[in-house]
Amino acid sequence: MERIHQGCQPAEVIERLRQAKGYYITNTARDMSQSDYKNRILLHTELLAAPSRERAGYFSLEITGGASVHVDMLRKQVDPFVKLRLIRQAMPTTMFQTLCRGVNLFGYRPYPQNVIRLTVREFAHYVDVWRTFDFLNHVPNMTAVFEEVALAGKINEPCICFSTGPEHTDQFYVNKVAEILDVTGPDIILAIKNHGGLGTPKRIGQLVDAIKQRFPDLPVHYHGHNTDGNDIGRIVAAVRYGAVIVDASDAAFTGYYGPPPVLTVMQTLKEEGYAAIGLDEAAIIETSDILTSQRGYYEQFESQIRGFQPTVQTHKLPGGAMGSSLEQAVKGGFLNKVPEILNKELPRVQRELGNYWSVTPGSQILWTTAVSNVLSGERYSNPSGDLRNLLLGKYGPFPFYQPEEWIYQKVLGDNWRQVLANDSGLSEIPDVDLAQEKAELHEKMGAEPNNQQLVLYLQYPKDAIDFFKFQEEYGQVHVLPPSIFFKSGGFEIGQTLYFTDPHGKEPIIEFGPSPVDDTGVTRVFMNVDHYQRVYNFQPEHSAVANETAVKLSKEEILDLASAGDVRASFSGAVYEVSVKEGQEVAKGDRLVVLEAMKMQTPILSEVTGIVTNITVKTGSSLHAGDRILKIDPVA
Amino acid sequence: MTITKKKILVANRGEIAIRIIRAIQELGYEAVAIYEKPDARSLHIRLAHEAVLLGNGPRRDYLNIAKIIRAAQATGAQAIHPGYGFLAENPLFAKYCEDAGLIFIGPSSKVIADLGNKVVARQIMASHGIPMVPGTANLPQGPQGEEDALAFAAQYGYPVMLKATAGGGGRGIRRVDSEQQMFDQLPIARAEALAAFNDDSVYLEKLVLNPKHVEVQILADHYGKTLHLGTRDCSIQRRNQKLIEIAPSMVSKPELLEEICHTAVKAARAAGYTNAGTVEFLIDQNYNYYFMEINTRIQVEHTVTEMITGIDIVRKQIQLAFGEPLDLEQEDIRPRGHAIELRINAEDPKNNFMPEGGKQVLVYRSPGGFGVRLDGIVHQGYQIPEVYDSLLVKMTVHGFTWDETVNRCRRCLQNFVIAGPKTTIPFYMNIVEEPDFIAGNFDTSYLETHPQLFYYDEDKSDVSKLSKFITEIHYRKHNPFSS
Predict the structure, then answer these.
(1) What are phi and psi of B205, to 5 degrees?
(2) Distance from CA of A458 to the nearest CA of B (A)
(3) Which H/E stretch holds residue A204?
(4) SS3 letters for A100-140?
(5) Of these four, A15, A149, A413, B307, which has the most CB atoms within 10 Å of its CB?
(6) Which residues on B lie below 8 Å from A37 (Cβ)?
(7) Per the CB < 8 Å rule, is A514 touching B474?
(8) What percent of chain B has pLDDT over 70?
(9) Fold of the CATH domain B212-462
């Protein structure tokens, strides 16, 4: 059987899937990056893999969507559209796939209808397969995306989010599929979105079977995570019962929370008698050979906790949220509480809040509530705005049952019945005035924006502007390899850097010495394209200039912070002071935000106490070790 | 008997000092540079045979006639070249040189004085039938002055220009649109003229709306021969300061340009002019032309004339000043092709051409190849002076046709890399791609009528931006992208 090429009409793609003798594979590179590398795999690396991935013959490459659109701009400094354009150039025949959060698009909150439609239209220039989900499986939350995808002539792949528990019956899911088909019509692919990697192979087999029994012509795409180490088992079961596409990715980058390796899936299914349609084993191996050399650059993004987590069956945290949640635990200093949170509190909160699907943004609500419940000592005493909105039904109705009244009372207050009566249910979000938004963006950018820039701005107003300004100053930094982009501690004198610029040329950049003159100015000497360049860095004046500057080690800074003496952990400018003197703060609360190179990093409190002496203000520039503020710890 | 080499003191700084030193050296003579303390590291000092520190400046020592004459005497220089700006058109400087037995490379002090006084100059020209913009004599002080001014404006209509009699180079000019403004502006103009030129005389001229600014280069020896080197167009200006100059004028009326050149020679003869000079004219929308003034110095834009005529004007200045006769005839001067000169300044066009004083040129790479000439002071590491002008380098390109010249100009601008200060390069890039400029259609309103020229990306070079980013990663040690 032939592989399906990019450009094939949706109806034809669906028809070929119905006729397929065997199965296809989607390479979920984006999900792998998000689940195991905090979404930080660079475009540079994806482009290295692109030629062999193109030859590998995947059904599609999932390369955008989820949290990646935001992280592309925020941490990787690449325009999400430029990324798609460049990978498309390198992979002209492979379909691209996205993961869209329905009404929440690629963000965390519902967007107005006209923003959703414009966003889908712009991304549809590059994205062929649209996997769309809603964390409450509330179909009306996805209809705007369905409509625009169909209008753009692209393939709709609506999801049923999958989870386990007494309510999660085949019947429930089959009815959900019927509800989706009522809206979309028959020419879709249905995705089973098993973001947690939940259930046994047997359970998944039963579910696929139930769906195929009822809808024999519906192509089913199984998506899972390998968090418990058993996703291959689920994949095999899914294919055995009729799934025609499954998700996996390149072995060289597989970790613990993302997809399993493509090749293992193929080897296993081959023995089972299923043909991998269009797939080229040699090209798949070649991709991993190329990627193996790159993995070392991403070590710092791999999860703090390594190893498979069979307990996911209890806590149900999705693979895509594992990395960021554990990172938060490390930064917030509560890594020791993680077992309690994951194994006890999270399952309890999950049940209490209606046993819905733990996936963005619902998974964040569950996680934040569980963390807050454990750290504060009193359950539901410090509810987030998002939890409030969940109870108010702002995201959609609870699928199975509502939380108990005491939770409403804790979260919404004693007059909760009144609040619920006045302000509950899905509310229509008014359209924004796109022309006016564009004019505002024009003013902020100082140049006429295109629709792609507008789309990014509408979803992440502040971060998009910061990114555009970054790009204006530093250019297309996505051409830099990870060896340069992630370099910490400076380069060596005489070191030559190698990369290819956006025009295909290889600039010559060599580092010279960086002497500091009498006035404290550091002069960084470089040789750029055979010409010397000197960059002057003014000394960063300390906020406590008259105090003798003491160089503190990272450990000393952390020790001081634990005693309530908060110091700058790196050189940068104060971007925001988040607290006031006299304010009570808890461990993990944000105190200030420091900025270096236009990147903002929050400094969190290591102790619980009262802020006493703030010695910085917004704009102060600090050296590592400089005083920020003091906290009187409360015993 | 010892043969001493001829030695010339260059009483200037910056690119023009270097330009003059080059001509002196090509004649086989020696050049003496002078400098003020802030210029101690300047390139012109390095190129000269010897150099004299005048004092701490800034500017006042370059304007100190006595110090400069002493420096010439101390170094044994026989002649002084004043360049442009500073003392170049100060008749006292020429006079002191003459009195000290030094050759002043320029016309006589009397000619400088006559032509420097706009009213005297107009009288001379009027008596020789040179066409002029209608204007008044010096306005009398007090109510009589106001009365004369109003009467003139009533006769020729507003707008009119109030000009400082001792002004020049575009300074000391005010536009007046109504009677009320006349009452308001007259005392202000006088006060300004007094402050700037130590002379509060002002006069009125009819304002020619959106004229073309065309000028004629003149060479005259001491033996009665006066030649012209054709026209230049300097219409592209901001606030009466020239930015781009071209040769010859793009006015497609050869007879008119020929007539203007003859008029220029006539004007120079009328003034008893010697050495090199420039006769400036305005051409209005109906192709009437008017005499404006004669500049008695080498001009910034002389390079365009040199490129199309092949004549080294500064060399000729020196030879003429030393008493040599002009060794060519008018028919020997055959301009060929077109030349464009761009003043590449360390300025921010978007911010009203604010100079970038104090900034350092981190990278300097200049274009090369056929038909391009650079006259500059800039070098890698050059610190933009805060106390002098912000001119980095003049780029002059020459081509056989106008199209070829504009395209060469664009190519050379693309080849320039100047990092550190903002420069006028990206702004010029817009001009050489602008259809009216490409078609040769421009007058003094060009910048006002083409505001789109001010939209551009400051630094288009990828490698510049990326190397800045890499340097930040290097310098800061903490890399926010890897955590």
Answers:
(1) -135, 150
(2) 24
(3) helix A201-214
(4) ECHHHCCCCCCCCHHHHHHHHHHHCCCCCEEEECCCCCCHH
(5) A149
(6) none
(7) yes
(8) 98
(9) D-amino Acid Aminotransferase; Chain A, domain 1 (3.30.470)
The whole-angstrom separation of Cα A68 and Cα A37 is 11
| Domain limit, last residue, from A247, A265, A299 | A299
Domains in chain B: boundaries? 7-105, 134-206, 212-462
Q: Is the pLDDT of residue A445 over 90?
A: no
Closest residue of B to A75, CA-based?
B481
Give me the residues paired with residue A90 across strands: none
Q: What is the CATH number of the domain that holds A327?
A: 1.10.472.90
Q: What is the DSSP letter of A276?
A: B
Is A488 in contact with B478 (Cβ distance < 8 A)? yes
Is the separation of the CB atoms in B280 and B306 below 8 Å?
no
User: What residues of chain B lie within 8 A of the CB of A512, using their CB?
Assistant: none
Number of domains, chain A: 4
Partners of residue A533 in chain B, C-beta under 8 Å: 362-363, 419, 467
Picking from A300, A476, A529, the nearest residue to B482 by CB comes out as: A300
CA of B210 to nearest chain A CA: how many angstroms apart?
31
Q: Which residues of chain B have pLDDT under 50?
A: 1
Check residue A575 and give its pLDDT.
84
**Which residue of the set B13, B19, B122, B297 is catalytic?**
B297
CATH of the domain at A573: 2.40.50.100
Whether A456 is covered by a domain: the verdict is: no
CATH number for the domain whose boundaries are B7-105: 3.40.50.20
**What DSSP letter does each residue of B322-354 carry, written as one string?**
TTPPP---GGG----SEEEEEEEESEEGGGTTE
Confirm whether B7-105 and B134-206 share one CATH topology: no
Range of the domain at A502: 489-539
Q: Which residue has the tokens 């080897």?
A: A267
Asked if residue A548 has pLDDT above 70, the reply is no
Contact B479 A507 (CB under 8 A): no
Q: Which residues of B touch A491 (CB under 8 A)?
A: 470, 473-474
Last residue of a domain, one of A506, A539, A572: A539
Mutate to test the interface with B, among A330, A478, A597 (most CBs of B within 10 A): A597
Q: A48 at the B interface (CB within 8 A)?
A: no
- Is A501 near chain B, with CB under 8 Å? yes
Residue A552 sits at φ, ψ, to 5 deg, of: -110, 145
pLDDT tier, A175 (very low <50, low <70, confident <90, very high otherwise): very high
In this complex, the residue of A477, A484, A507 whose CB is nearest that of residue B463 is: A507
Whether B297 is catalytic: yes
B107: nearest Cα among B311, B270, B332, B345: B270
> What value does the CA radius of gyration of chain B take, rounded to a whole number of Å?
23
Does the residue A406 lie in any domain? yes
Considering the domain boundaries, does residue A547 fall inside one? no
- Rounded to whole angstroms, the Cα distance separating A449 from A453 reads 6
B425 Cβ under 8 Å from any chain A Cβ: no
Provide the CB-side half-sphere exposure for A104 (13 A, CA).
Answer: 23
Residue of B nearest to A521 (CA): B475
Helices then strands, counting H and E runs in chain B, come out as 16, 20
CATH of B134-206, one of 3.30.1490.20, 3.30.390.50, 3.40.50.720, 3.40.47.10: 3.30.1490.20
What pLDDT, on the 0 to 100 scale, is given for residue A540? 65
The helix or strand, by DSSP H or E, that contains position B95, with its residue range, turns out to be helix B91-99
Pick the residue from chain B with its C-alpha nearest to A38: B483
What are the distances in angstroms from CA B317 to CA A435, B228, B395? 63, 14, 22
Pairing relationship of beta strands B30-36 and B7-10 according to DSSP bridges: parallel
The answer to whether residue A182 sits within a structural domain is yes
Amino acid B461: pLDDT: 76
State how far residue B466 is from chain A, nearest Cα, in angstroms: 6
